[in-house]
Design goal:
five-stranded antiparallel beta sheet, single chain, mainly beta
Amino acid sequence: QPHPLSRPVDKGACRGGTVQCLRTIEIANGDALSYFELRASGRSELSCLGVVKADSHEPDSRDYDFLSSPTEECAMFFGNGGLRWTLGTDGALPPDQVSSQSAIPDPSRAFRGGDRVGMVVDLAAGKLGVVVNGRLALVRSHLPKGCPLRFVAGGGGAGGAG
């Protein structure tokens, strides 16, 4: 269920594109733990949600792929159960191993229309988790410390993330 203070979204107006939260997630804001959730609709394999570095680009100048997903400085979870990780790890991993944080598509983690998909970020621990229908589907560590992040969601086709 949407938060009672959230404005309703006209599902008929959702035809792909990207939504990025304006407020940044950072410990300076008291955000040691943050959660973002959406309900997938339509062709959810073309949908994604994740986090982007808030200080790396203005939202309108960031590069996006055909799925309306950022291509750099992000951690994005896709409807097919895959994860793209292009965030730095502040030296916790060698640069040639940062891509090992990514995950190939996996049907056991995939989400479909009607599923609730969320992302939890623990900045103090440097961890990111993906939740599908209340079940933790994927966890990664080595989020950049002290770096403000923003939640982002994208849908690459009609009726994507809703």
